[in-house]
Amino acid sequence: MGSLTQRVKDDMTCRGGTCDKPGACGVHGGCLYRSSAEEARDVMAGARGVQPAETVGITQVVRRFASGATRNTDEGKLDFEGFLSPRVLKRFAEYMHKHRIQADGSLRPSDNWQKGIPRDAYMKSGWRHFFDWWGFHRSEVPMIDTDEDEEAICALIFNAQGYLHELLKWKMELRGAIPSCPRPK
Question: What letter does residue 45 receive in the DSSP assignment?
């Protein structure tokens, strides 16, 4: 994701302002290109006769696309698409699905872990899987013919996610946001 200045330059059309970088955007003398996000915001807002909205300390500038559609910037918003890898999430889902099959052959619900597993269990299991992952890393031999390294990493992700889930749930209980449950260890 580029800077606000770059997104402004890429996403908006010039509204005829003045600029110290003539021709930078290719329309009306380059009024959208500025050396800082603040300058770009001010130029764009002034060129359209619009004042930027202030919310929770974040200055927002409306993006205007070539089609005429408008949207607020994504400045200050969580970027799930950028933070997460579809490849990793798919591999993790495959790991989770594989491990839904219990010893008696029955299939447990995919969200079974959310019912509550003590944090101690996640920590102990997480350490075992971290140790496996670390061993694969130290061997410096690619695990081309097996997926043991991927399994260890997925197991570590599962344990970290489960631990964080229990920790967040406990903190919400303490704040009174959800009904009280026994304190996880």
Answer: H
